[in-house]
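Hey all, sorry for the wall of text incoming. These are the two entities for the joint prediction.
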Amino acid sequence: MTFTSPQKIVLRVLYLKTNKNWSDIISTVEFNHTGELLATGDKGGRVVIFQREPESKNEPYNQGEYNVYSTFQSHEPEFDYLKSLEIEEKINKIKWLPQQNAAHSLLSTNDKTIKLWKVTERDKRPEGYNLKDEEGKLKDLSTVTSLQVPVLKPMDLMVEVTPRRIFANGHTYHVNSISVNSDCETYMSADDLRINLWHLAITDRSFNIVDIKPANMEDLTEVITASEFHPHHCNLFVYSSSKGSLRLCDMRASALCDKHSKLFEEPEDPSNRSFFSEIISSVSDVKFSHSGRYMLTRDYLTVKVWDLNMETKPIETYQVHDYLRSKLCSLYENDCIFDKFECAWNGSDSVIMTGAYNNFFRMFDRNTKRDVTLEASRESSKPRAILKPRRVCVGGKRRKDDISVDSLDFTKKILHTAWHPTENIIAIAATNNLYIFQDKVNSEMH
Amino acid sequence: MEFRLEAHRIVSISLGKIYSARGQRGGLKLHKNLLVSLVLRSARRVYLGEPGGECGLPPRPRDPPPPDCERLRRGGYRPLGSEAAARGRVECPAESPRKRSAVERGQAAGSPGKKPRREAEPSPPQEDMETGNVASLISIFGSSFSGLLGKERGAAEASEPGQVCCEQPVLRSLNPWSTAIVAF
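and here's what came out:
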């Protein structure tokens, strides 16, 4: 998607799911590897999977819409009796496994337990049993005079989701991320202080590969905030910290990867120092580019692109909402400064996207250096509506339709966004609403 | 002065957050509480006028301490401001955050009768005993705060804002928890 001018960004709504309950607040969004399926997790522990309808020649305008494919309860609230703590059922992350047969598999996690789910379709059922009738009741054997071979007959599509593995008791602290390895056999889960490596088939043990817990908890100065495996090199992974640093680790170097192979951090700008410098430098999300050459990080005010070959500073920094820099104290007071925004690459790694407040989300084109602010709102949710670029004015000349910084609604935050792996289709979670936008003009990646 | 007012406000807000975090569903959020305690530490430093709170600002001149603190001083305890000044160390905010804890440890280690780790963070209840949490919180608040959130120990009322008093063992005998969240 190139941004030669703002008018070229034409996004239309494909699907809008609205919910009104607190427990329906969407907490994670993830496309699968082909983009055919989109999974969302919510605070109530539910997972909803959407499937893209195949394009139809009869209705070209409805091409590729996403409809609900399956809904299931992934996690329930639990109570840790030993520590007198409730364990929230909120789904923190969902990650799809690469598809290896007709079934789809995904990992979902709450604060403590990761689960592997298998999603299968059933569209045929056997009919003509010898011993039971159509309803399944046993037949009176005296009425059976001949034998028949049961035949598979088509039936209405039924999607079944079954829990295949439950990876429990691996984490003392809150799990913030999971990542499937490119080897398709292992995955890692990270909490505030530790990262564990699991085998997808083994639930009763895991290997601890990173442990930053100090011997004395009073010495604690930073926590792990996000982690991800390299998309191609199965031995490499990265984790981000609350101090704004990234550590690239190589599992071939040692079993315990406390010592990093590379440390990526940018020195702090002394002129921007405030009480809240540490909070706003905490990295809330880290994502490898599809190429594996770059990493994308999100902190409170910026997104940064890092080159794996350069540890001293990011190669690109984009301001998401720098006008908030003077309002950090208020944002601290209302807890907004702790919001954890995610970030996403498009399929060709040329555009990056992240959410902001007032249901705004931002896209940055790395090649043209142009950026755009769009809004996920009711007005833009009419089918085939075209999204209009928005602008936040910070004093000075104010154009019509600009929003002033003081009018921003900080309760409307877009924390979770996802980009289709190959096409210009994006999924935006705005509190408890899901928006799916498609680039009408260019549906293929440029 | 404005800095001190803002610092005061931030300290109050931070203490409120730590307090309300205890009842949160899902347990203590370690990351958030760590960040809050870092803000609390910075604000406290500015409020007390310690060197390092504002780069280049000298320590605030101290009023005569109340009788409680006299007792403490006889026990070998020294007020924050003078100890830091005595060391002559000024920590500039321009230093990287990573270095700060090392400097603080140096400062704290030199003061007798104080907990060695002043910049301690709240421990997660998952792994530490309740008293361990409280000890951490006390060591965060150091000597000038009364905002004490533990149940077993009494809260300390600072006699004057910024006054140096209340070594950890003394806190047990002081005002009950219910009377003080923020003393300022």
